[in-house]
Amino acid sequence: MNSKFQLTVAALALAFIFPMLSEARMPEPPAVPLPLKGTEPHNPNVAGYYLQELVKRKLMTPEEADRTKTYLIFRHARRMQDLKEVSGMSREQRRAYMKHKRELRGNPLVEYANYCGFSYKRAEELMNLMHDSNKGTKYYNQMKEKNAH
């Protein structure tokens, strides 16, 4: 088989697979209005639709959804402030700045659990559901590993 053809096929396969891996999240709920379709789930304008879908499926309580929505509003506002602070910086400066911010904030699961008043285990479950992945488990294990040292 032609090596150029093989490289093209491999590149197309990776281009198809990697975006799906990096964008792991629960499927967009049917209730999301047409003008908001495709909006990032952490955006407060659509987060409620995702949370209500979890409540409807009895995977999250209404109180958990309310607390999570409040947290997502806080996170979104903080993200917008971060983006404002890095405007005008070079790509390398932005990356260094955001890395430093993440280090200061620590484990996202711990922040989510503490902000919402959830146990770490419940925050892990909810984060896994919202991301349709094991993202919560990853952060939970990082927390346990850090606390073991």
Task: Give a summary of the structure in a few sentences.
72% of the residues lie in helices and 0% in strands.
Question: What are its keywords?
Answer:
about 0% strand; about 150 residues; about 70% helix
Give a structural overview.
With 149 residues, this protein is an all-alpha fold. It has a domain at 45-148. Helix content is 72%, strand content 0%. It is built from seven helices and no strands. It has helices at 3-22, 44-56, 62-86, 91-105, 108-116, 120-131, 135-148. α2 (44-56) runs antiparallel to α3 (62-86), α5 packs across α6 and α6 (120-131) packs antiparallel against α7 (135-148). The radius of gyration is 18 Å and the shape is globular. 15% of the residues are buried. The model is unreliable at 13-22 (pLDDT under 50).
Uncertain spans: 13-22
The backbone outline, from C-alpha atoms, is globular
* SSE run: HHHHHHH
What structural class results from the helix and strand content? mainly alpha
Distance between the termini: 52 Å
Taken as a percent bin, the fraction of beta residues is: under 5%
Number of strands: 0
Tell me the number of helical segments per DSSP (H or I, 4 or more residues long): 7
Biggest sheet layout: none
**Average residue-wise pLDDT:** 88
What percentage of residues falls in helices of 4 or more residues?
A: over 70%
Radius of gyration: 18 Å
